[in-house]
Design a protein that fits this description.
CATH class of the largest domain: Mainly Beta
Radius of gyration: 19 Å
Largest sheet: 4 strands, mixed
Strand order of the largest sheet: 1-2-4-6
Number of helices: 3
Structural class: alpha/beta
CATH topology of the largest domain: Immunoglobulin-like
Shape: globular
């Protein structure tokens, strides 16, 4: 952009504003709100946010920001391949972040499991007709795009993810359960933060947190 209204705004693409985050930095909830505010101030309505990595649950914040400002924020992960010297002239796909929703299910005896409620996979930009068909299938049958998912029932920010339970498809068995069956029991009443990780058929992983206990 020539003389941008804000240093957070870096370009235009098909009428939408583009923000590119710093190399190897984490795009945060606060940054998203700042970028959306800058876009709204210049009269923009759509912003593509390109980043190497994103804070947890950023999709939910994007939805809240849209309701507050009217700015639609599309979150795209910058592919690591873009930095490879020998990648040739082909540009690797910039996948938009997937949308994942899940719920902690408390059963008799205080046993806790996780239910996947909805999933819309990360989709790269492909020719219109193909993208429309993919979007339609993703909205109707989003779970079909999941290859693997796992649950850490006692997730701590900054700590490694622990696979307390996991489910994946195999070549012989393509079925995939969308509710865990571990019946996790906590030693105290909580609250506890559960992290749910999904890997889709494109190799993109998406994680969100849900709360259990009070």
């Amino acid at each position: 952009l020539d003389n941008p209204a804000s240093p957070l705004l870096h370009g235009l693409r098909a009428g939408a504003v583009v923000h590119v985050d710093g190399i190897d930095s984490l795009f945060t909830h606060a940054e998203l709100r700042d970028v959306a505010g800058a876009v709204a101030a210049m009269g923009g309505r759509v912003v593509h946010c390109l980043a190497w990595d994103f804070e947890m649950n950023l999709k939910q914040t994007a939805a809240a920001v849209e309701a507050e400002t009217g700015v639609v924020a599309k979150l795209h992960r910058i592919p690591r391949e873009i930095m490879e010297r020998n990648r040739g002239t082909a540009i690797p796909p910039f996948f938009e972040l997937a949308a994942l929703e899940a719920t902690a299910v408390v059963r008799a005896g205080g046993k806790v499991d996780v239910r996947l409620d909805s999933f819309i996979p990360a989709l790269a930009e492909v020719p219109g007709v193909e993208l429309d068909a993919l979007h339609e299938r993703a909205v109707r049958h989003g779970f079909d795009f999941i290859d693997f998912w796992a649950v850490d029932f006692d997730w701590r920010e900054g700590k490694p993810f622990h696979h307390h339970w996991q489910e994946y498809r195999t070549r012989k068995d393509r079925a995939l359960r969308t509710v865990s069956d571990v019946g996790h029991v906590y030693a105290d009443t909580g609250p506890h933060t559960i992290c749910v990780k999904v890997v889709d058929v494109f190799g993109c992983d998406t994680s969100i947190t849900v709360e259990a206990g009070a």
